[in-house]
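Much of what follows relies on a compact textual record of a protein's fold. A record is reproduced here so that you can trace the correspondence yourselves:

. . .
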Amino acid sequence: MTISNEKALAHRHGRETPLETAARLRAEFGIELSKQARKPLPRPVYDELSGED
C-alpha cells in the first residue's frame, strides 16, 4: 500500500505545481478560501515563526 502511494505521489509531483495540489485538495474536501485567507501574511509573521527577528 505504501509503495503504491509513493509511486502515485512521485507521478503526480511531476505534473502538479504546489498551487495546483492545494487547489485540488481544497476541491476534494470542499474547502473554500475567504478573501482574507488569499492574502499573504506579512514578512514579520514568517520571521517570528522561523525564530528570526
Q: What stands out?
A: Residues 2-13 form the longest helix (12 residues). The chain has a mean pLDDT of 85. Residues 2-50 form one domain. The chain has one domain: 2-50.
